[in-house]
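Q: Given only this backbone (269 positions), what sequence would you predict?
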């Protein structure tokens, strides 16, 4: 393909160990020197207009509001298709009952809405995001958090990628009801709840340790999310107005927050 294409292809030096999904994308992002990067999954199909729409939006952000020195990330909706490319659903976000515009960094810390294969990200965002901390869950989640905290996210409501669903998906699309049943199952396994909360709040931890303001009222409230006192965590979350996508998810989150046994150190030290 590369010998017949006008698109230049660069092969990176081989690594003789399994880095995993997140570290592989970190390596690719670190290797790239271009001003803009589009992340690709190998089995998804882009709409012909995908790059055009994303670039138009990031140029609009630069021209009208944010300039070229601020971390920016643009992402879009996706169609869901099966492993043979057969249409399943027209909107990833509708299928999961997720609001893609709920993308302030505290909301993102609880639940990611940025899907990597739809993204266009600028070098300012990449530079701020690298190196990835050990607590990063997924590359697109971390990039979204960095752009939301330091710069700007922008969502395009058109489905610009056919997101292939198959049994081998590392990360795929489950329906809202399947996700709800998964969360109920966690209630039966306290260690799983601890892992579920630790991962998300550890990622928030490193974000605010890198980019936060230690003496701000905001950071003091977030610190209390890690309190050993369940009531203090609960009240702090209410004061921060933390909420998930819909009432059911929000109730489940607050239940998890209340019975969670924090193992993460306080932030903004």
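A: Predicted residues:
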């Amino acid at each position: 393909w590369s010998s017949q294409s006008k698109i230049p292809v660069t092969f990176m030096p081989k690594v003789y160990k399994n880095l995993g999904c997140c570290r592989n994308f970190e390596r690719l992002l670190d290797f790239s020197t271009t001003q803009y990067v589009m992340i690709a999954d190998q089995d998804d199909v882009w709409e012909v207009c995908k790059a055009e729409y994303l670039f138009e939006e990031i140029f609009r952000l630069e021209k009208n509001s944010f300039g070229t020195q601020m971390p920016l990330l643009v992402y879009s909706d996706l169609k869901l298709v099966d492993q043979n490319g057969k249409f399943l659903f027209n909107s990833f976000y509708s299928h999961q009952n997720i609001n893609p515009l709920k993308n302030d960094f505290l909301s993102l810390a609880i639940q990611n809405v940025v899907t990597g294969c739809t993204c266009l990200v600028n070098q300012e965002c990449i530079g701020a995001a690298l190196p990835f901390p050990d607590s990063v869950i997924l590359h697109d989640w971390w990039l979204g958090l960095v752009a939301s905290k330091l710069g700007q996210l922008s969502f395009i409501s058109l489905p610009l990628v056919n997101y292939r669903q198959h049994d081998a998906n590392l990360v795929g699309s489950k329906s809202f009801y399947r996700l709800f049943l998964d969360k109920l199952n966690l209630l039966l396994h306290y260690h799983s709840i601890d892992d579920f909360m630790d991962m998300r709040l550890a990622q928030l931890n490193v974000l605010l340790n890198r980019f936060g303001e230690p003496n701000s009222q905001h950071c003091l409230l977030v610190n209390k999310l890690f309190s050993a006192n369940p009531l203090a965590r609960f009240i702090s979350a209410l004061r921060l107005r933390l909420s998930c996508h819909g009432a059911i998810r929000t109730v489940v989150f607050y239940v998890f927050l209340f019975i969670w046994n924090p193992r993460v150190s306080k932030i903004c030290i």
